[in-house]
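DUF2961 domain-containing protein, pasting as requested.
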Amino acid sequence: MKKIVHIVLAILLTFTLFGCNQTNKNKSITDEQANKKLAALNDYGLDLFKKIDFLPRISNHIYSEQQSSYSRNGNNTDGFGLPGNVTGEVSDNNFIRPLLELNQPGVIYRMWFTNFGAVPRLAIYIDGASSPSYNLNLVDLTSGEQSPFLKPLVFDSIESSGGFVSYVPIVFKESIRIVGQGDFYYNINYQKYPSNYDLEYDDFDAKMTEVASILNQSGVDPKIYQNDTKLNQTKKLEANQTITLYETSEKQTVTSLAINFNDFDVTKFDRTETKGQGIRISRNGSIKFEMSVNDTQFNQLKFKSVLLDYNQTATMKIDGVTVSNFEVRARRLNGFEWKDSPYFGDIIYNIPQSLTTGKNTIEVTLNVTSQDLTLYDVDTISGSKTIDSFDLSNESERTRKNFTGTQTTPVEHTYEYDPNTLISDETWTQIHESEDIINQVYLKITYKDQTGDAVYAPVSSFFGFGAYGLFETLGLMVGLKEDGTMYSYYPMPFESGIKIELVNQSNYTFNEVDYEVKHENNYFEKGSYGYFKSAYVERLNGTASALKNQEPITFLKTNGEGHIVGITHSMSGSYFGLHSRFYLEGDEQIYIDGSLSHSFHGTGTEDFYNGGWYFKAGVKTNPLFGQSNHNYRDSRDRTVMIRTLITDPIYFRSSIDFKMEHGGLNDRPDADVIASVYYYHKESKTIRTDGFALNNEESLTNHNYVLGPTSSIVTTQSNYYEGIYSKTTTNYNKVANITDYSTFNVHILKQNEGVILRREYLLAPIGQKAKVYVDGQLVGIWQSSFRNSIEMFIRQDDFFIPKEFTNQKEVLNIKIEFMAGSANKWTESFYEIYTIESE
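Structure tokens follow.
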């Protein structure tokens, strides 16, 4: 903690504390000019990076989905090519894997891969092209040298800490097909648009420079710089006190919030790589050398070595007396600790004082018992002083130390230390003290026309740096700067007022809390936008909130309409050797609009944050994602992860249930979870107005359900949903096998913004397609990209009908016309109809 009392003048606060956070913008512009500029941008593709001002806008016609290599039979074998993952692929050659196929407009916003074995290759076919629009391997795709896959929208496996990642928007007007070759894990996120939606391809040459400028300046507000009103103040926050930072009863938009608790320092990990020159001693080889010691005090030997994927061992003698089995431990099972590659490590041994009393020097002998042993330097330490140092690669020092050795060869490596070990014990004490206090300071935001708290979360979780210490984190929308400034750039529009408070639940008094609130006019029409909110999750081992076996974590479960735009996720697990990071095995499963079928099912927690192999390259934070912190405390392995969903929000119309597993099969109840999920939210206008099932004859009659002459209704065995509903059987045991068509009538509300058809069907055969007609007009092709050939599984899937086919109507005649393809039929067991009411 800082000992110096800060005297901060208001004028300096504006320009130094928070910086000129518009350095990448031109001079300020009016609301009218800003709206005109924003309106000229597309609502999709690259323009979304420049349209963050409009992030609160509600879009009920966009469907968010993800395809991935999740294990189709419910186990934890999530990679395609791994034994045990029943993929449901149609290819005779399982090495060629269909990843995504759609026949409607849309945009791919995120692709993530990691591989085992050879580097996979992708072929991407856009809008019915007979040859791939893009055909390249993952190394080339993320190199930044293959247009349009350019930096800073692509990340190799070092930059992402384990994944091959692309945030290059891929627009398709009519169809998309992606085929992968190899053995790999994958996630592909995309947005589906109605079939009549007019999308245009992105002009990468014209847009990438501005997009890159935004992403390359994390910590700077990415929104358009307007002449916002600024409130800069300093207040005292006493122990167990609540203070108000900002309050108004007007219709406004809070554009940014920044806070600095001057009492605390921010830590930045030292990721410096250094060159080490030393020797490698082969099995049965030995070295002998002399080291100075303190003849009256306790002495230690510190060896600089490198942590490899195997143990390096030797027997150690001091003046001929065997004192220890020398060991340089292996890195714990690739990916289970700081990073999944060699790095320097210091091994310290206590010398029995009886062997140094009355001596100025000792002779150290090491006889190698492992396949080899690599050493660089040796130091003698007594108390806090270094008594002697020996660079094993230095010939003159070897002579001075009377060095002899057998089976040795010189080595030279460039590695880093685990940066946690470079932080002194005294500094760690300060980090933990400030961590314990700051985690008890909560941000509270309430809107005056809304019930309950929109935000109530510790500032550590809300501002993106997480629960495990004040470490620099520069996310695009939230973060912590090196100077101590915590920032949020999420726009917060409201109709009737807002109150922003700090709640200090600790016994610590902050004499000076500097903060800045920016606000402007709210130019959104009422009902067209969502209120910014944050769902706070706290599940702590040993408390009433502790995780349970076989029960996933609920990140967000709410009714209403909106979209998720970001997550800060802190998670820790008991430190028990090889599998300390197994808590990261959990997959995300996201259920939208009350469906019993997931729209998202991932392949692992770190994969969701675009890492891989438990963040194999250590801490890496990019503007949109990353592992921002990985440290250890009280025998706990602790990870902080962040993801910003600016171009790929997760949309919902009536509800969302966002689950995250812990461990491979929800089997890490020892884990702690602390998370904030950022989202925009409003009251839903989606209403179930009709529905019928094929096992109800009266319902079929009432809806004029008719099958074509070659189609039939059959009785099925018990069928199950995937994911968290895998033990839930369907209530509908009759299914229509459509080989020509089915027709039926449904009731809707006359004043509407569109209608949603929900169908339940058998997942096998995969690749089912049909044309959808409303009152004789072709609306588009209905096709699900979800693939599972296991015959016991069923799925619920939605199709959006735009209002041009539905408005001012109370009854629709629907025709489903089977399309021949990879599947030889279209299946349906029920239809539910949801009307989106007009505002």
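Note for the archive: The two ends are 53 Å apart (CA to CA).
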